[in-house]
Amino acid sequence: PILFKEEIGEERIDNIVKSLIILKRYTKIGGTVLALMQGAGSAEKLAIKSLSYFQNNFENISAHPLIQKLQTIIDLEMDENHILKETINYGIAFHHAKLPNIVKEGIEELISSGLIRILCATTTLAQGMNFPITTVLFDSLNVGGGSSSRELTNSEFWNIAGRAGRAYMDKEGHIIIKMLNSKRSTIDKTK
Fold first, then answer.
1. pLDDT digit string (tens) for 114-153?
2. Please, what's the b/e burial string for 148-166 (b: 16 or more CB within 10 A of its CB; e: otherwise)?
3. Burial of 182 (0-12, 13-18, 19+ CB in 10 A)
4. What is the mean pLDDT of the chain?
5. Shortest CA distance to 20 belongs to which of 180, 190, 133, 139?
6. Distance separating alpha carbons of residues 146 and 135, to the nearest angstrom
7. Taking the model in full, what pTM does it have?
């Protein structure tokens, strides 16, 4: 982690750096890696940091018609300089409740088409999703922020974790949980 921290120009090893280390390993496997984040801010922050780290390693897919379609939607619905326009050019996206529905639908179309390699999302996407996801990284077992923060229920956890591994495409799926305070506490929370 220390060498990686220096490689990406970070001053300390925080949650984002730890997530990037995991993403580095699991994006090499192929398929989409879903990083389930606690809130919209952390989802966007990880996507932006992922862009700065992976931009030179990921293909620029901005010429793809579905990317161009979503670029136009973002221009109309959000801001022509919105960072999401840049991240999707490299197959990196974020998805949360604060995005306009039409933008979320565009991101979901990119996921279904296999154009997204890293998806930083909240449970807004994960509930009821049926997308090709190879790896699920639980950045936290909490959802929401501030006074509305709560732990994922066991059924919510397994609903999301069960999405790892694409039927007839992947031999296996990967579920990664950052260790909580202890190994025992992590096991207890994910039973």
1. 999 999 999 887 665 678 889 999 988 888 877 788 888 8
2. eeeebeeebbebbbebbbe
3. exposed
4. 87
5. 139
6. 28
7. 0.89
